[in-house]
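Action item from last week, closing it out:
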Amino acid sequence: MKKNDEIFKEEVPEEELHSKIDVDDHIYVKRYGLFGGRVIIVLAIILALTALLSAIYGIFSLDKNSEGRDIGVITSKYQLVVIHTDDSYGGTIKSFSSYKNNDNYYSYNFSVSNKNDVDLKYDVSVNKENGTTADLSLINYDLLKNNSIVKSGKLSNINKNKIYGTDILKNTSDKYEIRFWSSNADINASFVFKIEVLV
């Protein structure tokens, strides 16, 4: 048998024959979603911009109110030790009948200690509390620091309750006495106060 006789022949209907001349073999992939890859690209750009803006905001917010310090520098908050002679941090004068002048006065004592390794500034405030019926313009005061008068006057003349501001050296203490009296207050007038020390 000759080699040419081994070729198999198959008849194919004419309607199944297609010409491949000038035909591109493109494969088309169906896109998913509303806009396909464009939406994913836009979302990626938005996320990248959001991350960048968040990082910038974080850098500036961490350094906010830092008073010019370098980013990452931590400022310690120092505290003073204040010891009061009354657990209400102040006192109550029910009547000024016994406290008429600077020889007969109401006295309250407290101390301020700085146990830190730096010098600090602090303010002493006298806060009028509920129950006060006396006219503050009629109440006199003397503030003594370490047995010396450092401030005196009328309670109505102090600004925002701040009666005194000073510095305290590291590892030192200040002893205070505040005296109140009134020669003109009503005999039944009362004065309720608290002492506050602010760094």
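Closing note: The two ends are 116 Å apart (CA to CA).
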